[in-house]
Amino acid sequence: MSLLQVKGLHAHYGKSHILHGIDMEVPEAAIVSLLGRNGSGRSTLLKAMMGLVPPTAGSVTLDGQTLSGQRPFDICRQGLGYVPEERLVFPNLTVEENLAIGVQKGAPGAHRWTVEEMYDYFPRLRERRGIRAGYLSGGEQQMLTICRSLLGNPRVLLIDEPTEGLAPRIVDVVMEVILDIGRRGVAVVLVEQKLTIALKVAQQVLVMGHGELVFLGTPAELDAAPDVRRNWLEVA
Ligand SMILES: Nc1ncnc2c1ncn2[C@@H]1O[C@H](COP(=O)(O)OP(=O)(O)O)[C@@H](O)[C@H]1O
Ligand SMILES: [Mg+2]
Predict the structure, then answer these.
(1) Cβ distance 177 to 146 under 8 Å?
(2) Which helix (H) or strand (E) holds 179?
(3) Which SMART domains does the UniProt entry name for this protein (predicted)?
């Protein structure tokens, strides 16, 4: 059985029906890239899994435990981590204080992360540990947001467009970190606009269109499916 299972998931914003019955599975320690054009429903799917947008039908289970219907905080505590598109830092707290808030002792998770490991991933954050997060660059805030989520020791980490707006050098660092997270046994669902990156890091690729899954396969299979790329990914 897969670690994370999503079955027949629907979600609405008011009367707008956004997710139309999503079925997906995330195996233990797998990196799954979730692709699609803007507005296809990728962020809504992550939010529905987290309970931030309560699903109107369907279920989300983690290791056999039903998450759907629970509050985001409880879902997080059971091992689903989330890095939203908007960078979430406490601007008036230092880098170190932001990290300290993220630390969960005794939480589930394949790996118990430490603040030192976060500084090893992103030495720039170590250099700036005493600086208030509000003074960090966008890229540094993105790193800090990822670290805070990791320190909660998730079993599955949902990451929404982590490289958006980052300099190419930082994009490479973030990608290396995502690969390392997978090597340590944490599963990752990655929403990533840059196709080359999404295909490079993932073992499995899902493509969404209009709130439905329109493709499921390996990166090689997507590479060999120009019609899927043309119809659902490339911007006309
Ligand atoms: N808070 C919201 N209220 C109403 N509609 C929304 C909201 N957020 C997103 N949508 C709509 O839901 C659809 C899917 O959006 P989203 O999940 O953000 O797509 P993606 O992340 O793939 O770009 C879009 O049509 C978008 O306009
Ligand atoms: Mg989005």
Answers:
(1) yes
(2) helix 168-183
(3) AAA (SM00382)
- Enumerate residues lining ligand 1, CB below 6 A: 13, 16, 18, 36, 38-44
Interval between CA 41 and ligand 1 midpoint (Å): 6
Confidence of residue 236 (pLDDT cuts 50, 70, 90): low
In CATH terms, is domain 4-92+156-232 a member of 3.40.50.300? yes
With a CB cutoff of 8 Å and minimum separation 6, the contacts of 186 are 29, 109, 110, 111, 150, 154, 155, 156, 157
Per residue in 112-147, pLDDT tens?
999 999 999 999 999 999 999 999 998 899 999 999
The domains of the chain are located at 4-92+156-232
The predicted structure's pLDDT at residue 234 = 84
What's the burial of 130, exposed, middle or buried (CB within 10 Å: 0-12/13-18/19+)?
A: exposed
Region of 66 please: left (phi>0), alpha (psi -120 to 50) or beta.
beta
The closest-lying atom of ligand 1 relative to the alpha carbon of residue 211 is 14
Is residue 37 pLDDT above 90, yes or no? yes
Closest CA to 3 of 79, 57, 112: 79
Helix, strand, or coil (residue 210): coil
In 3D space, the residue among 216, 182, 236, 186 whose CA is nearest the CA of residue 34 turns out to be 216
Taking Cα atoms as reference points, which of 57, 158, 167, 151 lies closest to residue 105?
151
Ligand 1 pocket test, pick from 10, 44, 45, 46 with the greatest ligand atom count within 8 Å of Cβ, gives 44
